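Contributing new records

If you add data, match the layout below exactly. Sequence lines come first and carry their own label; structure lines follow with theirs. Keep one chain per record. Anything else will be rejected by the validation script.
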Amino acid sequence: MASQKFVELLNEQVAHEYAAHQQYVAIAVYYDTLTMPQTAALFHRQALEERDHAMMMVQYLLDTDSTVTIPGVEAPRNDFADIVEPVRLALEQEKRVTEQVNALTAVARAENDYASDQFMQWFIKEQVEEVSSMSSLLAVVERNREDIENIEDYLRREAGTEGVDPSAPPVAGRP
């Protein structure tokens, strides 16, 4: 059902999502070592979200009777110069993923693969939210680099605004 070109790129995207998962775990651990529990928790949640994105893609490949290739990934970056650098890296990563998602959507459209195009629409919406969220966090962290408690307070307030998206694609392995 899915075009072969789309399937190949989606398998590559699974690798990108797992790499993002690993990078977010590394960032969370960095903030854990600085005793910034709210910031660490945010990146632990982000890591799980990236893993779920990979598994949504795996489920889509399974649902379309396509070949699934679970990749290995390069080691994430673990050392950072200051508390701003990991958030800057996260924003760059989200912008890169946005480009990847848009490229996948373009391939689906070029291949007249309407089901895959529809599948990618949720990820497009998700990336708008992710870039916006990381952009805001970067502004807060840059402004408060000398006041960790302000960053932690900001994240405490933001933590209550998250919710489950009922329109999200199914995650492989989850009932």
